[in-house]
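PROTEIN DESIGN WORKSHEET
SECTION A - STRUCTURE
LENGTH: 96
TOKENS:
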């Protein structure tokens, strides 16, 4: 999926354990870091992704000024409507 798009599902118990045991700074910055650092402690699966959403070279995040400009352009092209991941990918592909 594009950078900035994803889904993570955690149980409350897993989040509580991560909070109790994950003491490194990166464990506090991103909730999933303790899980990926200690996969033996958790049941980890992977969601299936529609082929239409596979576009790992595309950035749909807002970390840089260029990302901000892309997000503004997508919002303008969306005409004020909510854009799903597939629609955003299509719009970015058509403007390349």
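SECTION B - SEQUENCE
RESIDUE ASSIGNMENT:
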């Amino acid at each position: 999926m594009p950078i900035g798009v994803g889904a993570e599902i955690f149980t409350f118990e897993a989040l509580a354990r991560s909070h109790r045991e994950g003491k490194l700074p990166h464990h506090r910055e991103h909730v999933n870091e303790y899980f990926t650092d200690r996969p033996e402690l958790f049941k980890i699966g992977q969601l299936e992704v529609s082929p239409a959403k596979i576009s790992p070279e595309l950035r749909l995040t807002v970390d840089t000024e260029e990302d901000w400009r892309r997000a503004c352009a997508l919002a303008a092209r969306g005409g004020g409507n909510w854009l799903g991941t597939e629609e955003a990918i299509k719009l970015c592909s058509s403007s390349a």
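SECTION C - NOTES
The mean pLDDT is 88.
The helical segments are 12-21, 25-29, 33-37, 65-77, 85-94.
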